[in-house]
Specification:
By secondary structure, the protein is of the alpha/beta class. Helix content is 44%, strand content 12%. It contains 14 helices and 10 strands. The strands form 3 sheets. The chain has a 6-stranded mixed beta sheet with strand order 3-2-1-4-5-6. It has a two-stranded antiparallel sheet with strand order 7-8. A hairpin with a 4-residue loop joins strand 7 and strand 8. Helix 1 packs across helix 2, helix 2 packs parallel to helix 4 and helix 7 packs across helix 8.
């Protein structure tokens, strides 16, 4: 579609693939599980996107402006595992070789870059699909312009879906995060205030300003905690608000350019021993046909069970519609006794 773009949260893809995939590696010991998972997701999205531009965004190294606001921001987050760090550059190289623009900007987070691209798309009359499940990005959802997508479960979040999951509108997500805090980012919220309480207040008073204005009328321990936390809420709002004016040093039109390098992609795939993923090569090369049989009834299945029992060893492989072992649906099974 010519009026739609996809924006990929690269870090989210990387971590999800790392936890979903087995610890694969090349014959030289280079870990490749996460790379293979991300590559599969990118290739599937490219196939399903109907020619829409795809942009990949990663967090840049170093601290961001949020660390200046609050020195303890993300202080409790463990460093990236060494096995995953070794896969970061190959993933970025593959993104570029496939042809996707790849953006990482120092001093801000990927979420801020994504928010900026989302605004640029809206100004240019493009719809934007953000591929991430980061709850901070839920505040960007706006019908019909911006949606969030969970590629693992083929789930799309519009305004109704956000309300169904969080109990508030996308425009209230920022205020909810400021009240509840975020343990993964080390942002302390109002003690004893969880998502349900925050949603109840926001539905009753509209926004954070309305809650603060009515703080004296909120009873119980949570009311006391809210009044004692008022000084922290301004800081929290700054921390959870997404910047929409990051200088990307490029125009929106530059993001629409698809610039693949098939030779470089094949070189990377060969280095990582990813021959099976290289769909371009598969399409161009004549396939070698072996002796195959499709099992469609119980008699054929029973015959194969006998073959397996009589063999010293056999190979089995599964074909699924995703790389996530928890949510994947089984499409087929292949067996060989050779």
């Amino acid at each position: 579609m010519k009026d739609r773009i996809f924006v990929i949260d690269g870090s989210s893809y990387l971590y999800r693939a790392y936890h979903a995939m087995p610890p694969l590696s090349t014959s030289k010991g280079q870990p490749t599980g996460a790379v293979k998972g991300v590559t599969n997701m990118l290739m599937n999205l490219k196939k399903d996107s109907e020619g829409s531009p795809i942009i990949v965004v990663f967090d840049a190294k170093g601290k961001t402006f949020r660390n200046d606001i609050y020195s303890e921001y993300k202080a409790n987050r463990p460093p990236m595992p060494d096995e995953l760090r070794l896969q970061l550059q190959p993933v970025k190289s593959i993104c570029k070789a496939i042809g996707f623009p790849l953006i990482e900007i120092e001093g801000v987070e990927a979420d801020d870059v994504i928010a900026t691209i989302t605004k640029m798309a809206k100004d240019a009359k493009y719809k934007c699909v953000v591929s991430s499940l980061d709850k901070d990005l839920m505040q960007l959802v706006e019908d019909p312009d911006t949606t969030l997508m969970n590629t693992m479960k083929h789930e799309i979040f519009n305004e109704d879906k956000v309300f169904e999951k969080f109990g508030v509108k996308p425009s209230q997500i920022r205020d909810m995060l400021a009240l509840v805090g975020d343990s993964s980012d080390n942002i302390p919220g109002v003690p004893k205030v969880g998502q349900k309480t925050a949603a109840k207040w926001l539905n009753e008073y509209g926004n954070l300003e309305g809650i603060i204005s009515n703080a004296d009328s909120i009873k119980g321990v949570v009311g006391d905690n809210l009044r004692n936390s008022l000084d922290d809420l301004d800081r929290n709002i700054e921390l959870v608000s997404l910047k929409e004016d990051v200088d990307l040093n490029l125009k929106f039109e530059d993001l629409l350019i698809f610039n693949p390098d098939e030779e470089e992609l094949e070189k990377i795939f060969n280095e990582l021993e990813f021959a099976a993923i290289n769909n371009n090569k598969d399409e161009k090369s004549p396939k070698k046909l072996g002796k195959y049989k499709t099992v469609l009834d119980k008699k054929d299945l029973d015959d194969w069970i006998k073959k397996i029992k009589n063999s010293k060893a056999f190979a089995i492989d599964t074909e699924t519609d995703s790389v996530d072992p928890v949510t994947a649906n089984l499409l087929g099974i292949s067996i060989s006794v050779n």
